[in-house]
């Protein structure tokens, strides 16, 4: 096989294998990934519509080089069986050699399995059946059983060998045999791998077996290339023929039944039968062929007549015999008689079609989808021609290559260009023409444009399907076009033209227009008896009340814009004319470019008024619009009226409508085709809606109440659930004037305008009253520039500060403290009223248990530590992330009380057997457990790991308020990072921008294919946003704790990920580059979509296009979306690591890494690259990256922990110990504990548990009162399962002089452990220890 383009030469026949099968070509690969292309015309001797039916990826093929372009490094191949057939019997020779090798390997494997003491057999007489039973020789056997397919025999001294006399080889001798009878026959074939010997009992075969001298002489006279006549004696289906050569002493020969490039036996055009005489060519003689066989070549196609026959008359009207030489989409290629004349049978000249009957069938059964055509068993030419083709069946389906047919010559016809064809003769197979020609009658001329007139119905065949049209052929020289809108009145058919109209489908069409000068023909497949056309709608008035075909051009709040026909006007469908009933979303299922059938209702200006209601006969492709099954349909009586009676719109009336738009004026609802209603922003909701446009998307169904109808018929609506009225039932607002307002009152309003000195707010209850919120009365973050926090038409809550009725001035305050205080006062008043009304009693007394006694013992201490608890709970994630307390706090004794409070909070929420939280500031096994769960030894994904490490460093820096540790410059940097983290957490409360993905959404630790779609189980378990916010006693929002930030971030990432997965999966998932181009236009900043786009090209084997997509993504994604760009860089690194070739994979990926480091966070990128190289086994590159990480980021404990883990994974404990020493020298003192604990956890998990215990014992000697360290130690021992060590450790911990809250946590863990692993005595022992501690604490 060739290795480079220099080894490829034109006309060379090369072996290779199929690397990729496309819809239009097959790519064959050779050595060194050298690849050639074979187009559709070069794949087979017959027409090929689907290469996948002939070739499969990985199939070995033989091909001939067609053209070679060395400059462009490209070459084309030809794979037609007629060109690549193995006339030298190389295919069959390779088959026998492979079978012989398989048998040898099997014998060696059996000998090895039997034991080393036995001898290994070789291909000698002990194992080679072809030497025990030479083909053509005699064999003795005993009848074992008689079956319908032949006689089964036992062969003496060979119990593992089965003899078979096929029923065709029984003869007179075999017919008289009984069970147990002895026989002697001739060996026809030996199948080593099946242990089978085929035997013949035919008299001529037995005679030839006895005459060995004649056989030897005949074999000596045979030469390679000799043409011999053979008789088919047997067949191995799909493998080879067994032939006898009567003229050569009945020698046995073998010929292949299949060949290169033939995937399945049924694709072989020639069939064989037992006893058939065939002409063969000797190709291989013994001893070159295994088993002493003679190999011949028998053509697998019918052999045509020679060229020396008499000349056949080809005048028009002559009846000739022809052989099919090719099957194309719209015609048959034939060779006439025995001469060199060639002809063509057009698809319209194969069968007779009755126009009236075909039109009736077309009316009853429109064209439906049809599977791609493939060759069917050959039928007689007369049967094919005389059987009328049913609707939807291609008349060429019944023909096969080299089939002989009878045809009548039509002559050389004129094409539509007006010139006579100088090519093949036109023939006809139509029975009516054959009958007339045989009678000598004059033949009717084929259909031409000159014989057509508008309104005429003609039978046609589909010959081509374009994107916007179907091309039909009515005759050999008459071709017409059907606009897509005239192809069907079913939108689903228009959306799938190639499926609905396969090439070759017979149809009946109506002539719309004939342009004989321009040689153009317009046809229609609908309304065959009418005169309308959907392809060109010009007069709207004339089409009013009728159905028309169109395509959706635009969708918005004003409805659906539909383009009628190819060149017709644009019409509009109102929101209320899409469905017959009220549905939750009027626009659901509709999108631009979808084909529709609409009812023309009238005309408004230049636009047509249309309807998509199913009751009007309208439909949408795919079942969208009114034809879709919508959830939450309104009741039966809630049918959407086409027009609303103006007299029914009275004040207080409830109406339904669809959201049309939302702007500064308010919310507009479409009530019917022409009438809208306005909901002012003050009446949109009972509460505060910051973004009404987002809350009420276009097309949403709403139910509102009429509150006003003016003299011009304009309708004002309200969405409030309770309309407050003034006393006496007046319709005036509750607040008629400023005098009714009082200081401290809580009001709701809408921002009217934003200026430098404050906000102007219109009261929700009375928009005529406008108050001023001075910038000094705004929240602190908005005092400098109010426009950064507020926008026009934003709904807010404020407190009345001052009312000046004389000067008509109102002062408001938006200070959070004041607003919270007013809300609390209002809520307290309401609760007091409810309690008074319901007469609630006192609370139930609480029961006291051992836990509460311990808590009571430390109650005074707990009160003293309220100030520190919030901070520590923030570090622990409010106890939801694990059981342990924070690591990295100050080591003086003053922290014990704070840690006790944190431990108590953690113990209340943690399970006993759960792992301790080590991630971020806490020390636990969460990360290590994740590592255990991931196949391949990964931990968190690379991007997540690096991001979490950044958070670790920030939190550690922020955990020391006194700043007693670390250098001054580093402390300042850490403080700045803390502030940025707080700002980021605040932004998470807001709505994330659409079309973006976080780095955590991609599992970068998985292989390339899994990285794109794998659901990372670590992303589950997020909490709602309601759990992520908290308020202190004064009502002020307090800063989110770290655990809350993490959960809130995970929740947002899950929502974004779910939305993107829903869009990229299911029946509407993108499958082509065009689909992804539309997606990246809609979501240009989504790395998820870009990476999926890259994966599409990789699945097609086009890595270069995947690289181009990656570069486009980096150029397109906004520079602020750093995480999105980072995801693309990581995906590109994966791509180069797997497919990089120039100059080498290692250099390619390192070049890209160096480039990525210039544009991304270097630490995150190094960590991601390290994970990629570890998974792919590139240890040298991984070592290089690790050295760079520890050198550049020696102040990161997670970087050192990663290096230590790598050393332990390689069973190099000494290197891990040295790395820990280096880490303690490089890290600041405040990170030493964390580094030591991480190293200990790694030892427990990957190295030596004893070394891990030694590290933890050393840390506990210096910090014996650190509950978090004790908790981690206990976790690790619990995993070892050594009960003696575990109980000893619990005993040590529970006898420490720690505060009650810490002891409560330890006693609870000890008790739960004994309940699971111990007995009643051990449980009672723990309880007694706890009660003793309580008593001592209470008496102290």
Automatic annotation (TrEMBL):
At the top level, the lineage of the source is Eukaryota
Single biological process term from Gene Ontology: rRNA processing
Q: Which residues form the S1 motif domain?
A: 11-80, 136-202, 317-430, 455-526, 545-613, 652-720, 744-815
Concerning Pfam families, the annotation shows: OB_RRP5, S1, S1_RRP5, Suf
Entry-linked SMART domains = HAT, S1
- Residue segments, region Disordered: 855-1001, 1023-1048
Q: Which keywords belong to this entry? A: Nucleus, Phosphoprotein, Repeat, rRNA processing
Can you supply one Gene Ontology CC term for this chain's record?
A: small-subunit processome
Return the Acidic residues bias intervals.
855-865, 888-898, 914-933, 942-956, 968-984
Identify this protein by name.
Answer: S1 motif domain-containing protein
UniProt biased composition (Low complexity): 899-913
Where it mainly occurs, coarsely classed, is: nucleus
This chain's source organism reads Volvox reticuliferus
Name the Gene Ontology molecular function terms of this record.
Answer: RNA binding
Localization per record: Nucleus, Nucleolus
